[in-house]
């Protein structure tokens, strides 16, 4: 069936990104709560239609580690993407909560499984791994969203993509500055994963705050500086895992299979981690200790 705007009852805004807003909605015909993402694009209808058609591949992204996709449509100059609602929000909300190593490993495991699924089953890379694109729910599930499936959408958004906190791998930063179209591969997602793991553990973007307000300083630090590391409190195997992800030379980073076989993720005890319990505790913790947002780009 086709999803359309009239089907929805609108609820609160779940978040705002660089390109639009995400709102909680009720899909009346099915009674299912969903997340509706609005992306405002100054494009003609033909291009908007192309995007909606290209997004159709998302119907094939059926996996326990990927957000379910319900449909897309466009109205005026906005594309609407309708997806599974994750009632615990994104990983950035939990970054800085108590993050015991088994929980960090379990989150990492879900992300690596999701990335491997995208690569093996859909032949795509994610391209935008970062804490806000990793979603959680009260059952303890961890799932990926916002991966690049529409070439037209990626091209339309690319121009405005100057974040003050970049998760881009060094080779991507170098490639873009040289105007290369495809200068990166799955290994670039592995870099972004490494940075995301550290952010989840330490509670803030891993490069120094001085670089938050200066895009050039930040990109220079990523390309030429030392990669960040996990806090001391984590084990040697966790440190090694993150170091492997953050090798500056992309060809030296592990494959998804190698990551899954690494002792940080292959520990059978991870099957018993109570993720739902951790999500519940962390939501309570956040009520007492609200997340402080970083200074915006000057
Ligand atoms: P960017 O604009 O760079 O993509 P972003 O990922 O933060 O940044 P959006 O993708 O627009 O921006 O998402 C905004 C926020 O909405 C996210 O940070 C997340 O917390 C929330 N969100 C997105 N999708 C869902 C969902 N399916 N369920 C619950 N919350 C969601
Ligand atoms: Mg997002």
From TrEMBL:
UniProt-annotated binding residues for ATP: 37
Domain Protein kinase: 8-265
Residue ranges crossing the lipid bilayer per the database entry: none
Family that this chain belongs to: Belongs to the protein kinase superfamily. STE Ser/Thr protein kinase family. MAP kinase kinase subfamily.
Name recorded for this polypeptide: mitogen-activated protein kinase kinase
Organism: Rhodotorula diobovata
């Amino acid at each position: 069936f086709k999803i359309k705007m009239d089907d929805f009852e609108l609820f609160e805004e779940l978040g705002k990104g660089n390109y639009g807003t995400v709102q909680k909605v009720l899909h009346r015909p099915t009674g299912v709560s969903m997340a509706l993402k609005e992306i405002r694009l100054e494009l003609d209808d033909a291009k908007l239609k192309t995007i909606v058609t290209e997004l159709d591949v998302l119907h094939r992204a059926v996996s326990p580690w990927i957000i379910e996709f319900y449909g897309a449509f466009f109205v005026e100059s906005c594309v609407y993407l309708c997806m599974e609602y994750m009632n615990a929000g994104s990983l950035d909300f939990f970054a800085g909560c108590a993050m015991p190593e088994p929980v960090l490993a379990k989150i990492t495991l879900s992300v690596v499984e999701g990335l491997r699924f995208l690569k093996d089953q859909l032949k795509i890379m994610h391209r935008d791994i970062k804490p806000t694109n990793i979603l959680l729910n009260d059952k303890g599930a961890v799932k990926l969203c916002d991966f690049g499936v529409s070439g037209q959408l990626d091209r339309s958004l690319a121009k405005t993509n100057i974040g003050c906190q970049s998760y881009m791998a060094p080779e991507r930063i170098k490639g873009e500055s040289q105007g290369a179209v495809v200068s990166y591969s799955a290994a670039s997602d592995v870099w972004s994963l490494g940075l995301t793991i550290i952010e989840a553990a330490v509670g803030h973007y891993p490069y120094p705050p001085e670089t938050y307000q200066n895009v050039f300083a930040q990109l220079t630090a990523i390309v030429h500086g030392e990669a960040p590391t996990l806090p001391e409190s984590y084990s040697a195997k966790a440190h090694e895992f993150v170091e492997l992800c953050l090798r500056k030379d992309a060809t030296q980073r592990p494959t998804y299979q190698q990551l899954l076989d690494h002792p940080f993720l292959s520990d059978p005890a991870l099957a018993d981690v109570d993720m739902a319990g951790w999500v519940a505790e962390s939501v309570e913790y956040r009520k007492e200790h609200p997340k402080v947002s970083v200074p915006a780009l000057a």
